[in-house]
Design goal:
single chain; alpha+beta; Cathepsin B, Chain A; eight-stranded mixed sheet; four-stranded antiparallel sheet; 29% strand; globular; hydrolase; Peptidase_C19_UCH
């Protein structure tokens, strides 16, 4: 149980230091890698937000494009509109959780917090996230330049950084480690026994079960995730999110699996299920792919319109039967949408925006770099949708009087 802005919310109690994932950058929007980074000590210099002053609603401040940084702006606006993360960073006490002994020394967490706080003052039409771009560029050089990058890759690495920067809580075990179920052991091992507010909000766990078709022997492994990366149906102009989820969790045949019981290679069925639902569910669509019909390696983008629910996304069907008890901490398995990172254009030339549900105004807004405008909820579903942000937590606590 954690308390944010005086509101008690039941969250999971565990977590990690996640090794950075290896990305297939050939299937991501292209970048030129010009690394002209500023050399100055950001710890002793006032942050350079370069604000454009003007009264706007809280959370309706735009972000300047610092030379193709729309991918970063899109993700930051979605995180800014993640209610409980927003409240966490607005409480000065978050600094007591900063981990200064990791690679990023708490700097990523500090800069993200500073940007989010500035976005919610209501005093600026737009600001520039120059300091954040500089800091992230120190640890992943492609994010420090002025070239277009992939918002999914940025988000995934950013989640790992933020978890590591806020990783100060020792995981609580109700019994000795050896007596824990395999899923719990895997969770604790993955996060090195340390949890964070980020892991409590954003991370879940997948159970992968391989079953021998000859003797029906099963072997299960577990892997934590901060987002689900889903394939889109082939040769389809329109589909539903449920179609993509069904494809991801549908069993597939594995040939030549070494069965520990048969002591030989056998055909088997591999099945994925969710063993731990996250409080914030992030879904990514694999839109970029290598064209199999091209004479040379050419990458294309799927423009498939995915129809996804704005409310009542029910994930119960995808829960592993053996892990239902672990998910009783959640009062519901039904998610509501509050953010979308959109990608327009092709792999070589594109643009990112965000659609976000503002918790104060209870309306959807389009964040197109420094331009912010209201949109109808009916316009949120679009073929540009690239990453979806769902929450099973309240849109905002009823007790909140901001």
């Amino acid at each position: 149980m954690v308390v944010v802005a005086g509101y008690k919310i039941k969250l999971p109690h565990y977590h990690q230091l996640i090794p950075y994932k290896k990305f297939d950058r050939s299937a991501k929007p292209l970048a030129d890698h010009n690394h002209n980074l500023r050399s100055r000590d950001l710890d002793v210099v006032q942050r350079d937000f370069a604000p454009v002053y003007g009264p706007v609603g809280r959370g309706l401040t735009g972000l300047k494009n610092l030379g193709n940084t729309c991918y970063m702006n899109s993700i930051l606006q979605c995180l800014s509109n993640t209610y409980f993360l927003n409240e966490f960073f607005h409480d000065p006490a978050y600094k007591t959780r900063l981990n200064r002994n990791n690679k990023t020394q708490g700097k990523i967490g500090e800069e993200v917090a500073a940007v989010i706080r500035a976005l919610w003052t209501g005093q600026y039409k737009c600001i520039a996230s120059k300091n954040l771009r500089y800091v992230v560029g120190q640890y992943e050089r492609q994010f420090g330049g002025i070239e277009q990058q992939d918002s999914h890759e940025f988000l995934t690495i950013l989640m790992d950084w933020l978890h590591s920067d806020l990783q100060t809580t020792q995981m609580h075990m109700s019994t000795s480690f050896d007596k824990l179920p395999p899923s719990e052991k895997a969770w604790i091992e993955h996060f090195k026994g340390k949890s964070s507010y980020i892991s409590d909000l954003f991370y879940g766990q997948i159970k992968s079960t391989v079953k021998c078709k000859r003797c029906e022997q099963e072997s299960a492994t577990y892997e934590s995730f901060s987002n689900l990366s889903l394939e889109l149906p082939q040769d389809s102009n329109i589909c539903y999110l449920e179609n993509c989820l069904d494809m991801y969790f549908h069993g597939e045949e594995v040939r030549g699996w070494h069965c520990p019981k048969c002591k030989s290679n056998q055909d088997a069925i591999k099945k994925l299920d969710i063993s731990r639902l996250p409080s914030i569910l992030v879904v990514h669509f694999k839109r970029f792919y290598a064209d199999p019909d091209a004479m040379s390696t050419v990458y294309r983008k799927k423009q498939t319109l995915v129809k996804f629910p704005l409310n009542e996304l029910n994930m119960t069907h995808y829960l592993a039967r053996t892990e239902v008890m672990r998910n009783q901490r959640l009062t519901t398995h039904r998610y509501h949408l509050y953010g979308v990172s959109n990608h327009y254009g092709s792999m070589e030339s594109g643009h990112y925006t965000a659609f976000c549900l503002n918790s104060v105004h209870q309306k959807w807004f389009k964040f197109d770099d420094y331009n912010v405008s209201s949109i109808d909820a009916s316009d949120v579903q679009a073929s540009a949708a690239y990453i979806l942000f769902y929450s099973l937590l309240p849109v905002r606590p009823q007790s909140d009087v901001r």
